[in-house]
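Researcher: Re-running this chain for the archive, since the previous output was lost when a drive failed. Same request as before.
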Amino acid sequence: MANPVADSPQLSESQQLALSTLTSVTDQDPSTAISLLKRSEWNVQIAIAKYYDGEAPDPLEEARAALASAPPPSRPLHRETLLNGSSSFPRSPRGEPAPRIVPQPENETNHSPSPILSILFTPFKLLYRIFSGSFSLFGYLFPFLPRLLSVFSARTSPTRSSLNTIGRRPLNPRDTAARFAREFEEEYGAHSLHFFENGYAQAYDLAKKDLKFLLVLLISPEHDDNSLFIRETLLAETTVNYLNDSQNNIILWAGNVQDSEAYQISTALNCSKFPFSALIAHTPQDSASTMSTIARISGLLPPSTYVPQLRTSIAQHSPLLERVRATRAEQQAAQNLRNEQNSAYERSLAQDRERARVRREAESAKLKAEQEEMAREKLELKKRLQEQEWKIWRAQQISAEPGPEETSVTRVSIRMRSGERVIRKFAKTATVEELYAFVECYHIMISEKHSEPAQQPEDYKHEYNFRLVSPMPRLVYDLESKGTIGDRLGNNGTLIVESITSDDGEEE
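Model: Regenerated structure tokens:
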């Protein structure tokens, strides 16, 4: 079999190495492999991906063929909606939908076996080490064996061997972005570019939410123009100032295609030449949530060409984004107004509820007070009726005044609260309570209106609201004092009826 490298003396050393790698992996004919490498800009990884995943059509050739066969441009139909309206802003050209790429996480967790399994597999580990040592010894004695095994493994699993030659450890999107920024600064020195410090999906979401432009920059360290593009174009003062200008609303996300995330993005964006730049923005003319690629820049370009292309695309698309921002601002203002109206309504409703609650409480308190007053009046009326019944009953129980023939009597002169003086005889054996009952029931006794026998009221205990006092010397004859009228007054006595008030009760 002829050597493809030897049959192609016009190729450079790097191209011959790429051709040799591709033919060893894919077993292609050298002429077919050279054609595939030319279409892939002599990038072995892209050529292998095209071979196994299918080669997408070349956008440059399609554009040239479309321009050659396209009819004269006609005015496109424009349907007015609430989103685009009838504005005089120029419509930006329709771009390809930009997918949102979320890198698939690789399982790097090493699960340690249980102690029982470790003990069971210990003999197999020992046998494996013995055989490994034996093969190492054979490899040392026969050097052609490792090369033969490596060629055989390369032919049996070409994709795995080709994709793992770089040896970069896969990381999560944030750590991958940090690694890229660190390697970029180590390679090209300090700079003032502001790379987005997270994954592509997060930058995509931020640009969609804030209506900004997402500039995706993909580089390949294996490409010859990569270093020259970064030093002379990307880090040029014109480019840096334009990308860092906050008025341009640019989010810069960069990635190395040697990383899994950047490689997936390059495949999704149909990247065929490095360095590659894609400008992604929201396209409201397509739908309310579509993100599209509105500009593609491939290959090595000077700053005088690179920046104007970005500026032109952004200038064409900015009016649409400004209209969406204005629409969102109006919607937000309307939402804020509705929230304020709802808040004012809730406050007014709360005040009305509070006033209604206070009114109900006042009405309830008034009703309770009226009920308590009615209950008190009813109790007082009942008490007065019981008191009147008791007075009638007690008046009938008072002993009649002793006659002239009675000698064991006490003559008592009582001055009533009305000022009337009453003189009456009482038996000396009568109690002091008899005097109090006489004073309490005097008006009933003299009225002679209650001749029928009366009954003592139940659950009633009468309390006298006065006291009997002798004027000279002043002496109070209270009910708690023991003794009869004869013992306390003797044959004669003068008493004054004094009313008992609350102050008098406290002084006592």
